[in-house]
Write a structure and sequence with these properties.
By secondary structure, the protein is α+β, with helices and mostly antiparallel strands. The protein contains 15 helices and 21 strands. The strands form 5 sheets. A 7-stranded mixed beta sheet has the order 8-9-10-1-11-19-12. A hairpin with a 2-residue loop joins strand 6 (179-183) and strand 7 (186-190). Helix 8 (335-344) packs antiparallel against helix 10 and helix 14 packs antiparallel against helix 15. The longest helix is centred in the N-terminal third of the chain and has 18 residues, at 2-19. The radius of gyration is 24 Å and the shape is globular. The termini are far apart. The relative contact order is 0.17.
């Protein structure tokens, strides 16, 4: 199972690294995964962009990063791709701003044993051509994502019973042991081992985009990854059709008037790639109606100016992206040195001075917004005298008091923080040598374990921290830390249906993390979104922004 967790995390890390690291000058999400940094598209090509329709209500959403694909079979789990696809093909369920899973294509996902999950589709769910969305469509989609020819989606398919270690089925498979149709609107999915409902919902509920078998069923699977139909699908389940798309610059949508959850009130919706430096001017001029926190990185230096704009509401998102400090316990085996780092870093000062207090301080992994967070853990206080005493004690016993610390060069705020931390510790007996490297190099260093300390922005899904944390706290993970006493609480997080039991299990894991210090949370970032007052019923947040997109309206 550890091997499979590593596979899952390598995929997930790419996601974090594309969605989490970038809000303060960096990029990310390990969805739960290491990938290239996001690029900003220049704003100099308006003449190449087809004019959006103007004879109906139109809304412009500014995004920072370009899209890799609009084919659900090629989803890379970055937020921009996920939400762009969700407008066409509804996920089964989605998270709202309160971190609750709410119905989309599915009415519900339930389980009695954390092994078999029953997906009940909404009775009125139909494709835009009027054909019902059925369990056959869901099975068809599972067959595609587990197909050697078409299975490229990052969905942790390896969890499904009957697939191989990589989540694949034999070429040409027409059935899967773990996916069984119950009736036209109901399907059971069985996993290989106990899996928490929240893990299933977060992986398959949010990222499986059901595709129409009556449209794609006859297309050879080896052609689907490049099938032009996905550039402008004419049969969808979501609220908007693609009109035109240039993945480097924009996606223009038009309303699906047969959307089964209700005809969208806004006829035209546009995702426009905009340089962050132009967000302020675009909000001021009215050219930008909405910026969502994980798709658009508002520069920190513009926060106050955006807050001051008339007719614009600045919205601080739920803090979820963790500036994580990972310590390689093989290279730093003396726990006292690791504990000294925890006591000797003035995290509150760093939060307030480098990112203007836009976030929170927690111990271990979980943000305060996670349903598994417990305030009982508390926060370790800054205590430089205790840090100095621990270093002196460890040095007297022969511990190495020099550390190599690798930091992501694109996270400018924390690059400065590491320099400050190094200077502070020099005065109390610990020599820290900072190494500022690009993200690709940092991920190589992390995988090879050739670091003492490294830091990177990392988004642990608040409702599904297990996959990330279980891998990171393992002999194969970045920390090279394994504590057999945590096997049982980790297993409990996946086998119990009792929320309080899960909270207690994560509290045990967090306490061990604070005691043994394989990882430190420097701070958790809260990033800014914004919405124009002309746009009604829209509230940008890290989760839930688009669940009611069909109810958005424009003030006359």
């Amino acid at each position: 199972m550890k091997k499979l967790l590593k596979i899952a995390l390598s995929l997930a890390l790419a996601l974090t690294l594309l969605t989490g690291c970038g809000s303060q000058g960096g990029d990310t999400r390990p969805e739960t995964t290491a990938t290239p940094e996001v690029t900003e598209a220049p704003m100099e090509e308006p003449t190449e962009e087809p004019a959006a329709e103007v004879d109906g209500k139109s809304v412009n959403i500014a995004v920072t990063s370009t899209l890799t694909s609009l084919n659900p079979l090629l989803i890379d789990a970055t937020e921009i791709v996920k939400y762009a696809l969700s407008l066409e093909f509804l996920p089964l369920v989605e998270l709202n701003a309160d971190l609750e899973f709410v119905p989309q294509l599915a009415e519900s996902i339930t389980t009695e044993d954390n092994l078999t999950f029953t997906i009940k589709l909404q009775d009125n769910a139909v494709w835009s051509d009027g054909e019902p969305v059925t369990a056959e469509d869901v099975l068809f989609t599972f067959l595609l994502i587990t197909s050697p020819e078409a299975g490229m989606a990052v969905l942790n398919q390896y969890l499904i019973a009957g697939t191989d270690d990589y989540g694949m089925m034999p070429s040409g498979a027409t059935e899967i042991e773990g996916v069984q149709i119950v009736d036209e609107k109901t399907i059971n999915v069985t996993t290989k081992w106990e899996t928490a409902l929240y893990t299933f919902e977060n992986n398959f509920g949010r990222y499986l985009f059901t595709l129409p078998e009556h449209v794609l069923g006859e297309v050879p699977r080896d052609q689907l990854l490049t099938y032009e139909w996905f550039d402008k699908p004419d049969i969808i389940s979501g609220p908007y059709f693609i009109q035109e798309a240039d993945l480097n610059h924009y996606v223009h949508y038009a309303a699906n008037e047969n959307y089964f959850l209700g005809v969208p009130k806004i006829k035209y919706l546009n995702l426009n790639v905009v340089a962050p430096s132009q967000f302020l001017a675009g909000l001021q001029s009215g050219e930008i109606d909405l910026i969502q926190q994980t798709m658009g990185s508002v520069p920190l230096e513009d926060y106050d100016a955006i807050r001051a704009l008339q007719g614009v509401e600045a919205v601080m998102g739920t803090p979820v992206t963790n500036e994580s400090i990972f310590i390689n316990v093989e290279n730093v085996p003396d726990k006292r040195i690791r504990q000294a780092l925890l006591y000797g870093i003035n995290r509150q000062m760093i939060l307030e001075n480098l990112i203007n207090g836009n976030g929170e301080i927690v111990d271990a992994f979980l943000c305060s917004g996670s349903p598994f967070y417990s305030a009982e853990l508390g926060v370790t206080a800054y205590d430089p005298e205790k840090a100095a005493a621990l270093i002196a004690e460890a040095a007297a016993d022969g511990a190495d008091t020099s550390l190599d610390w690798y930091v992501n060069s694109s996270e400018s705020a924390f690059v400065n923080a590491v320099q400050l931390i190094a200077a502070t510790f020099e005065s109390i007996g610990l020599s820290i040598t900072p190494h500022t490297v690009d993200l690709s190099t940092l991920m190589t260093v992390a995988e090879e374990g050739t670091f003492d300390v490294m830091s990177v922005e990392y988004t642990y899904a608040p409702v599904d921290p297990y996959t990330d944390v279980a891998w990171l706290l393992s002999a194969d993970g970045w920390t090279r830390y394994y504590n057999p006493d945590l096997d049982e609480p980790f297993q409990l997080t996946q086998s119990t249906t009792d929320l309080n039991a899960s909270i207690e299990a994560y509290l045990t894991i967090d306490r061990a993390t604070v005691e043994d210090v394989p990882m430190i949370s420097a701070y958790i970032i809260s990033t800014m979104g914004a919405v124009s007052s002309r746009l009604q019923n829209a509230h940008p947040d890290v989760f839930g922004t688009f669940v009611n997109v069909h109810e958005w309206d424009v003030a006359e």
